[in-house]
Amino acid sequence: LNIKIKHFDLLQNKRDKFCKKLDQIKADYQSITIDEQYQEVYDSLVNKGNALVENYFRPSMNAKTLSDTINRYLTYLTAAYGDFSGQTSKITGFYRYFLLCSILVLLLSPFILSPIFALVFLLPIFLATRGIKQRSKTGYILSLTVGAAGLITSAMWIKYLFYLILDYATMFQNFITVNAALGQTLCQILIIALPVLGVVLFVLTILFLFRAYKVKDLFVA
Description:
79% of the residues lie in helices and 0% in strands. It is mainly alpha-helical. The longest helix has 32 residues, at 184-215.
């Protein structure tokens, strides 16, 4: 595949990028032994690669189609390496942080932003949950919207906590006015608990985004 790419003029300036990526993948694969349980997956990758080499490098081939196909194959190779090298356990940690951030965003955002803000994220969270389990790149990208929502929501609560420390009496009066239906006792609990959970959400969101970066290559298109 590397040789074909180097000598296929239609790929133009993408050749160096593809070849560099292939060299890295080759080095990665040389450092591992394929466990018997993954032999079928490995054989499938070899067959896909052979089909790519034999059927796609033709003068009549559309350059974009070929480029997209190579990109997709490289994505499969990179994701499969995660399986072969035992890195897929990282997805479990990533998924747990995603769920925790999602729960806190849905819990905290209605109080500081709007219930509509929380409702908007219900569908992306649902689709991301399914996508992560299927190791879908789309699911992974959708999960990052929760990271953005977590940063926005937590930043608002941290700001609220700052004003609460400065003037508790006024902030409490404003809070109980807006949430009168909850009762004074519950409001006294929530006005402390919610900002603290906002700080927790901020920490969890940072950890989630860090985990997201670590597992980005383990998802496929």
